[in-house]
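>> received
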Amino acid sequence: MAYYSLIFAADADRESKTVNFNAPDASEALLIAHKEASDRSAELWRNDELVCSIRRTHVAGDHFWQIH
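>> returned
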């Protein structure tokens, strides 16, 4: 298992937030992001390496994660 961090930036209504956890892979991290703050953008880190940034997006009534 690897050590991951989800870092949620502060926005107009909420403070910044960091969630640290161990997971077998990044897909588990996306599930945790959905549970922790499904409507916020975040950076996903594995140890000291940036894996990706994620953003919840709404298009024509559908909701999905946009991963960069």
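>> Residues 30 and 44 are 9 Å apart (CA to CA).
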